[in-house]
């Protein structure tokens, strides 16, 4: 037979065990709640301040612009905020037409000599008097690789921010009416602001 002392000791042990279980359960619940709050905070941060990529594009060569837009589209598709700053010869890829009206002599000369749009640009290697871009385009079509125009359209659809250097436009005698739609205009500080916030910065 179990005496009263043993029964009392067993009851106390069970009560202590239940008390410990309740306290552990409460601590686990508090810990799970805290973890959930941290996860929600990270998700909100990703949604409102997602990691970004800032890119300054100065080259007007087709192959280098292909690389720039391929990286931009890939990053944007992965959920990154992408900022592209176009300066000097890269501005040529964003022209949609040539305008001479309202320009002085030097600006007209620059406007006439410089190419307009991605189809008029050359390659950095093996340009072959203008045949290089055509050969490159043919090889890309055969392999199903998107051309520069397609990549630019995809970048616009993915909300890639494209800022054009106004100083470069002024030097080349370009006006905003000559440029494609959906662009922003600014100076070097536009790039610096995005570069300071970006996780990755590139120069092409």
Verbal overview:
With 204 residues, the chain is of the alpha/beta class. It contains seven helices and five strands; from the N terminus they run αβαβαααβαβαβ. Helix 2 (62-77) links the parallel strand 1 (52-57) and strand 2 (81-86). The radius of gyration is 30 Å and the shape is elongated.
Q: How would you describe this structure in keywords?
A:
single chain; 204 residues; Hypothetical Protein Ychn, Chain: A; 2 domains; 53% helix
| Order of H and E elements | HEHEHHHEHEHE
Shape label: elongated
Overall radius of gyration: 30 Å
The tally of beta strands, per DSSP, is 5
Kindly give the count of domains.
2
Topology (elements, then pairings):
Layout: H1 4-48, E1 52-57, H2 62-77, E2 81-86, H3 105-113, H4 131-142, H5 148-157, E3 161-165, H6 166-172, E4 184-186, H7 188-197, E5 200-203
Parallel strand pairs: 1-2, 1-5, 2-3, 3-4
Helix pairs in contact: 2-5
Question: How is this structure best summarized?
Answer:
The protein is an alpha/beta fold. It has two domains: 49 residues; 153 residues, Hypothetical Protein Ychn, Chain: A, CATH 3.40.1260.
């Amino acid at each position: 037979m179990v005496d009263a002392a043993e029964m009392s000791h067993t009851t106390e042990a069970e009560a202590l065990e239940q008390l410990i279980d309740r306290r552990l359960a409460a601590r686990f619940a508090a810990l799970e709640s805290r973890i959930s709050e941290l996860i929600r905070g990270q998700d909100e941060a990703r949604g409102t301040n997602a990691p970004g990529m800032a890119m300054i594009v100065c080259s007007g060569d087709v192959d280098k612009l292909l690389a720039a837009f391929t990286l931009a589209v890939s990053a944007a598709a992965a959920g990154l905020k992408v900022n592209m700053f176009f300066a000097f010869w890269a501005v040529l890829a964003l022209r949609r037409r040539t305008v001479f009206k309202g320009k002085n002599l030097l600006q007209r000369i620059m406007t006439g000599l410089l190419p307009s749009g991605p189809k008029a640009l050359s390659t950095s290697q093996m340009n072959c008097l203008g045949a290089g871009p055509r050969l490159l385009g043919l090889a890309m079509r055969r392999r199903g690789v998107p051309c520069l125009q397609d990549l630019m359209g995809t970048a616009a659809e993915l909300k890639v921010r494209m800022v054009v250097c106004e100083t470069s436009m002024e030097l080349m005698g370009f006006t905003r009416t000559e440029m494609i739609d959906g662009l922003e205009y600014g100076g070097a500080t536009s790039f610096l602001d995005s570069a300071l916030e970006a996780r990755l910065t590139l120069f092409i």
